[in-house]
Amino acid sequence: MQKQVIEYGGEPVGIVVPDQDRLKFIAVKFHVIDLDERRFGSTDEVQVAIRDLVREKNTGTAAHV
């Protein structure tokens, strides 16, 4: 797998790159920076983490990662 652009709400928010049998997320938008350099098993896991993070931030309950 090569790098892949990750979108949220139709907007590119980062990329994933292969890293030690996982996918490392590289954030390019500030609202997902808390996920920067985290590793995931799939792009679906990245999407779920982004969705959860955005929801937490919108409700004011975001935890620092």
Structure description:
This protein is an alpha+beta fold and 65 residues long. It has one domain (4-59). 26% of the residues lie in helices and 34% in strands. The chain contains 1 helix and 4 strands. The protein has one helix at residues 43-59; strands at residues 4-8, 11-19, 22-27, 39-40. It has a 4-stranded antiparallel beta sheet with strand order 1-2-3-4, with helices on one face. A hairpin with a 2-residue loop joins β1 (4-8) and β2 (11-19). It is globular and about 35 Å long.
Keywords:
65 residues, alpha+beta, 1 helix, four-stranded antiparallel β-sheet
Please count the beta strands (DSSP E, at least 2 residues each).
4
The H/E string reads EEEEH
- The total domain count is 1
Low-confidence stretches: none
Discrete helix count:
1
N- to C-terminal distance: 27 Å
Tell me the structural class.
Answer: alpha+beta
Beta-strand residue percentage: 25-35%
* Whole-number mean pLDDT: 92
Cα shape: globular
Describe the sheet with the most strands: 4 strands, antiparallel
Strand arrangement across the biggest beta sheet: 1-2-3-4
